[in-house]
Amino acid sequence: MAQDTIVVGAGVAGLECARRLQRAGRSVVVLEKARRVGGRCATRRFEGQPVDVGPMFFHGQEPAFLEALDEVAGVTVLEGWPGRVEGGGAPCQPGALDPSTRHFAFAEGMNAFTRHLAEGLNVRLQTTVTRIRPVGAEFEATAGDGTTFRGRNLVLALALEETRAFLATLPASPELASVQALLAMFFSVPSLTVIAGYPVGANTPPWDLLFPDPSEALQLIAHDSAKRRDPRFLTLVYQARPRWSRARLEQPMVEWSPELIEAAGAVLGPWALRPLWTFPHRWRYARVDRSCELARPVRLKLPQGPSLGLAGDVFTPGGGVQAAWLSGARLAESLLQED
To answer: What is the CATH number of the domain that holds 309?
Structure first.
């Protein structure tokens, strides 16, 4: 059955775009390769304890974005988190902790927001799109199992490099070539990440976030268990610098994960070398480089009639969850105005 719009990617941008289109009466299907929604806005659970493995907190100034976060039901809002920030290292988003910017977290985890955005949407999880192509006045998206989806609009809400790979498979046109040339100037940066669980007790850090300086390996250490009610573990999230991550990106996790723990021990002391457990995660496309920003989402009308939209944090200034959400919202508005 044909849809009005196919959205590829169930991160913040894709979900907000789909939600707005559906609220306006459009039929929408969201295709997501992972087992859960959220993309980089990710939360894992260890013996029931949430741990955020991507962004550590929400921050923003846009009233509509903040209102959307305030709509999330059943969560405990930790206003002002992180309140205790130490270290002289450079944060990946320097403006996130600006006094004029609201910043906060959810005790239940960051992905409470994306689960909220996904409510009522037709989301097909574990559906990997392997091909997109225009077919007359529609787009066709084919999944790995051979299932096809058709819609007169297609939205790619993916990492920048994944979007570029799909665009390279489309029939050539001057308009498409212009978009490809524009996106070729931008890139994402990786971040190898390790969650480490320790006994609750003596070594509780006196900070929420630490930006180590100097450290060739570590960009950020988050005291994630400071966000949780009665945590079973002291949980720290170690996020590596882009250059360090890039040099080890293709290595097995069992090789770079101990290296990152060793780097943490050099910063925090010998106790950090002895976690009860660890969980490594490879963010190949952790975020868009801060020098890479566009003013608005991209829309491309193909000669036969179908419309292609591109959303994600690269398509709105400021970066982070707010930029991703705004790009999805603005792309949906553009698609609705077309009619």
So the answer is: 3.50.50.60
- What is the chain's pLDDT, residue by residue, as a tens digit (339 residues)? 678 999 999 999 999 999 999 999 999 999 999 999 999 999 999 999 999 999 999 999 999 999 999 999 999 999 999 999 999 887 777 678 888 899 999 999 999 999 999 999 999 999 999 999 999 899 999 999 999 999 999 999 999 999 999 999 999 988 899 999 999 988 899 999 999 999 998 899 999 999 998 899 999 999 999 999 999 999 999 999 999 999 999 999 999 999 999 999 999 999 999 999 999 999 999 988 766 667 688 898 887 778 999 999 888 888 789 999 999 999 999 999 876
Domains contained in the chain, number:
2
Question: How far apart, in Å, do the first and last CA atoms of the chain sit?
Answer: 21
> What's the domain range around 71?
45-108+187-288
Q: What is the CATH number of the domain that holds 208?
A: 3.90.660.10
- The whole-angstrom separation of Cα 297 and Cα 294 is 8
Count Cβ atoms below 10 Å from residue 208 Cβ, excluding itself.
22
| Site of tokens 């979007």 | 163
Domain boundary among 253, 271, 288: 288
